[in-house]
């Protein structure tokens, strides 16, 4: 990890476009060279995020995903700027479109929904539990595959995912009203059926997903 000054940080983000921000400041920026700068705020000095920062988790998770055959970003640099208490990562833009954008714009959603169900089943089959799974974190890449971008909040389990974990993943996927509306327009039950089939889950377990 590289430690940078406030002046070095200003050089790093020079002419960058802010893609995402909150009340505490910038979160994601895009440079003119198509590199993304993602920032992680330290909420408390005495916290695990200071000892094991989210930027490091992000980098390690992205590397492990790519190793497992799940497309993700490739981090080039980790840094910490003490003048405003931010950890950060720099990586080349992963070219593609987010699924929420594609599902809002495409008329025929069946093929994409089927691909998404298979993708989630693949993550679960590989014992990947992505707590922040949602349509804005999943890209359809230029080669047609699906990939993940915001990957700090996931874990690689030693044991197969339980039905409770799978169900919780689906609840997070449907948490945003605008995303849930896209699934309901398509047919939420049909999408779940796609997933159950791809994940090879017996039909009698269907009740576990009925109250999503």
Key terms:
212 residues, alpha+beta, Phosphorylase Kinase, domain 1, Transferase(Phosphotransferase), domain 1, 2 domains, 6-stranded mixed sheet, 3-stranded antiparallel sheet, 8 helices, 38% helix
> What is the CATH architecture term of the largest domain?
Orthogonal Bundle
Order of helices and strands: EHEEEHHEEEHHEEEEHHH
What is the CATH first-level class name of the largest domain? Mainly Alpha
**Nearest-integer average pLDDT:** 91
> How would you name the CATH homologous superfamily of the largest domain?
Transferase(Phosphotransferase) domain 1
Can you count the helices? Answer: 8
- Total of domains: 2
Taking the alpha carbons of the first and last residues, their distance comes to 41 Å
In which order are the strands of the major sheet placed? 1-5-6-4-3-2
Instruction: From the 3D structure, determine the CATH topology of the largest domain.
Output: Transferase(Phosphotransferase), domain 1
* Strand-pairing-aware structural class: alpha+beta
Low-confidence stretches: none
Q: Helix amount, in percent? A: 25-40%
Number of strands: 11
Oligomer: single chain
């Amino acid at each position: 990890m590289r430690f940078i000054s406030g002046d070095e940080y200003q050089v790093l983000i020079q002419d960058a476009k802010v893609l995402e921000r909150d009340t505490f400041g910038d979160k994601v920026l895009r440079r003119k060279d198509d590199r993304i700068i993602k920032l992680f705020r330290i909420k408390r000095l005495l916290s695990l995020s200071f000892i094991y920062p989210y930027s490091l988790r992000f980098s390690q998770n992205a590397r492990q995903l790519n190793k497992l055959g799940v497309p993700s970003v490739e981090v080039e640099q980790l840094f910490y700027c003490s003048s405003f208490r931010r950890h950060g990562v720099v990586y080349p833009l992963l070219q593609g479109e987010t699924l929420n954008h594609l599902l809002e714009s495409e008329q025929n959603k069946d093929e994409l929904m089927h691909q998404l169900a298979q993708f989630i089943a693949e993550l679960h089959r590989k014992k990947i539990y992505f707590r922040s799974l949602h349509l804005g974190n999943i890209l359809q890449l230029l080669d047609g595959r699906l990939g993940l971008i915001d990957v700090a909040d996931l874990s690689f389990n030693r044991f197969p995912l339980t039905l409770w974990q799978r169900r919780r993943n689906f609840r997070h996927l449907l948490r945003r009203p605008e995303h849930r509306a896209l699934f309901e327009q398509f047919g939420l039950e049909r999408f779940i059926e796609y997933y159950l089939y791809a994940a090879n889950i017996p039909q009698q377990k269907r009740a576990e997903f009925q109250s999503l």
